[in-house]
């Protein structure tokens, strides 16, 4: 596992999978500008989930996985299960490609349509952290992709 960025304040662990390393760094900068601390980690491999990811998750208030693969059965699901198995009680959210048919286009356009830009991800992360600070239970969080935002069915 590679830690790409780390701050002294450990509000969110952002697991940026594969090609999303740079996006993770951009998100960290944007979220940091809102006063939150972000650790960005690239797991290098996703299964089995690296123990270092579990150890880092214990130190943070929120874990967010960003991947360009399908969310259902994806890296986010694997990380969430690894954290449950290790009794790490921290909210986990994943952003990725929802199951379904998506419009063709350039990678940048498809990611923008799916809400997987640095701006979109930073907005989601900041919103989740705000809810944590407000004392909302983790189960009240709703992923944007579940609501259909970011899908080709806009």
UniProtKB/TrEMBL annotation:
Residues 7-121 form the Transketolase C-terminal domain. One of its GO terms (molecular function) is 1-deoxy-D-xylulose-5-phosphate synthase activity. It comes from the Bacteria. Its cofactor is Mg(2+). SUPFAM superfamilies: TK C-terminal domain-like (SSF52922). GO terms for biological process: isopentenyl diphosphate biosynthetic process, methylerythritol 4-phosphate pathway; terpenoid biosynthetic process. Keywords: Thiamine pyrophosphate, Transferase. The keyword Iron does not apply. GO terms for cellular component: cytosol. InterPro entries: Dxylulose-5-P_synthase, Transketo_C/PFOR_II, Transketolase_C. Gene3D superfamilies: 3.40.50.920. Pfam families: Transketolase_C. The keyword Oxidoreductase does not apply. Homodimer. This is Transketolase C-terminal domain-containing protein.
């Amino acid at each position: 596992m590679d830690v790409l960025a780390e701050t002294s304040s450990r509000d969110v662990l952002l697991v940026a999978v594969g090609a999303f390393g740079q996006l993770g760094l951009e998100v960290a900068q944007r979220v940091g500008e809102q006063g939150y601390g972000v650790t960005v980690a690239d797991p290098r491999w996703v299964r089995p989930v690296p123990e270092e990811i579990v150890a880092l998750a214990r130190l943070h208030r929120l874990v967010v996985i960003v991947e360009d693969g399908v969310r259902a059965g994806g890296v986010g699901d694997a990380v969430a299960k690894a954290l449950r198995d290790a009794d790490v009680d921290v909210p986990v959210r994943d952003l990725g490609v929802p199951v379904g048919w998506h419009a063709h286009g350039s990678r940048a356009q498809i990611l923008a349509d799916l809400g997987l830009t640095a701006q979109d991800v930073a907005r989601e992360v900041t919103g989740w952290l705000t809810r944590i600070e407000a004392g909302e239970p983790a189960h009240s969080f709703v992923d944007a992709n579940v609501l259909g935002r970011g899908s080709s069915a806009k």
